[in-house]
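User: Sequence for DUF2620 domain-containing protein below. Tokens please.
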Amino acid sequence: MTRILTGGLGKAEVARAVRELRLPGVEVALSSDMDAAVKLSGGQADYYLGTCHTGAGASLGVLVGLLGSAACHTFGRSAPSEGDVVPLLASGVTVFGFAVDRIDAVVPVVVRAIARAH
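Assistant: Structure tokens for DUF2620 domain-containing protein:
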């Protein structure tokens, strides 16, 4: 089971978008950034998707501080392709940030890449 936590301004919308994909073996839950850092560090969750207005800072600030920048990546206001996501997963990135108005463009790409990687 792959456990994804969502946080930030659009955490409920991100969780809805993940659920709508109906990918087998993918579980999603809403979280705060602090709780996500603890759960990711303790192996109680696998990934975190965080949103803020720009996707550039507040979506990941606490997680970068607690887990380190190597575990975190922000797409900002861009919409990644699977080709952008796969190498990030391979390098150990488990925390992704993006702008709240990009949920519908980012979530399917990132979550499908995560599901394929597991």
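The beta strands are 2-8, 26-30, 47-52, 72-74, 95-99.
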